[in-house]
Amino acid sequence: MSRYLACGRFRLELNRPLIMGVVNVTPDSFSDGGQFNTPAKAVDHARKLIEEGADILDIGGESSRPGAQGVPAEEELERVLPVIRALRDGSVPVAVDTVKPEVMRAAITEGASMINDIRALRETGALDAVAASDAAVCLMHMQGEPRSMQAAPRYHNVVDEVKAFLRDRAAAATAAGLVKERIVIDPGFGFGKTAEHNLDLLRSLAEFKTLGYPVLAGLSRKSTLGQITGRPANERMPASIAAALLAVERGASIVRVHDVAATRDALAVLGALG
Ligand code: HH2
Predict the structure, then answer these.
(1) Which atom of ligand 1 has the smallest separation from the CA of 190?
(2) Which end of the chain is less congested by CB atoms within 10 angstroms, N or C?
(3) 145 CA to centre of ligand 1 in angstroms
(4) For the residues 13-19, what does the mean pLDDT come to?
């Protein structure tokens, strides 16, 4: 595995776990209830996350929560472009959470350094949109589509199937011209998976590293943590910290989280053990 991630003008060393801070510019995200649904509020929130120690910001203009409806590209761009422009000259790379090639292209042109795609560049034109740039990409596994993915998730062997999918998508990305140093893989916790599937993936997370790419884990505030603790999304911070630590212990290079300051402290304790 490469020791760094090539991410636009940034080179992120992977000798310690990195924190990706979530900034949803959406009215309907499950996790933060549309609190940052104007560009100005999202930018303020992003700056706070940088102060708290975020290594990457993940800007999302379309909710992918179970049951979510898609938004047109123009609306997504109206949400994310002002945020990218306000943050692009800052100290940390800006990732954009999108599945649409036209949003990817515009986001990269406006200064995004990474594309975070829950469809792993399967949309027609998405591979080319990223390959034509120097942006990094996160390839995530999802069974089905957000609208219906939680209806009846089914696998013979969730770990093997998700691994095979990510191996194929990484091969497609390298065939399209991306060097390995630009690619991150993600098993996609909660995307067409039951709580048991998610726990199987977390237990076996170390196996994903054998594919040769840094692994990103996004468990923050997710419903599996709600099922375990009985708590609503806004009370899942302690469970999210535990999940982030367990993911890093199992080899995750990047954790995608809402609570950056608390995650930073928890990872500092883990790091102190050496
Ligand atoms: N999870 C969410 C969105 N994007 N991207 C990656 N790579 N991995 C994830 O696990 C992941 C993701 C869902 O969380 P959130 O952004 O808080 O909610 P919403 O989809 O409602 O915006």
Answers:
(1) 10
(2) C
(3) 13
(4) 98
Q: Is the dihedral of CA 106, 191, 157, 18 positive or negative?
A: positive
Q: Alpha-carbon distance 17 to 269, whole Å?
A: 12
CA–CA gap between residue 87 and residue 47 (Å, rounded) = 8
Residue-level length of the chain: 274
Query: CATH code for 4-272?
Result: 3.20.20.20
Indicate which residue of 222, 236, 250, 264 is catalytic. 222
Helices then strands, each counted (H, E), the chain: 10, 10
Structure tokens belonging to residue 123:
């949309």
Q: What DSSP assignment string belongs to 28-69? A: --TTTTTTT-SHHHHHHHHHHHHHHT-SEEEEESS--STTPP
Residue pointed to by tokens 């589509």: 145
| pLDDT band, very low/low/confident/very high, at 35 (cuts 50, 70, 90) | confident
Which residues, 6 or more positions from 265, have their beta carbon under 8 angstroms from its beta carbon? none
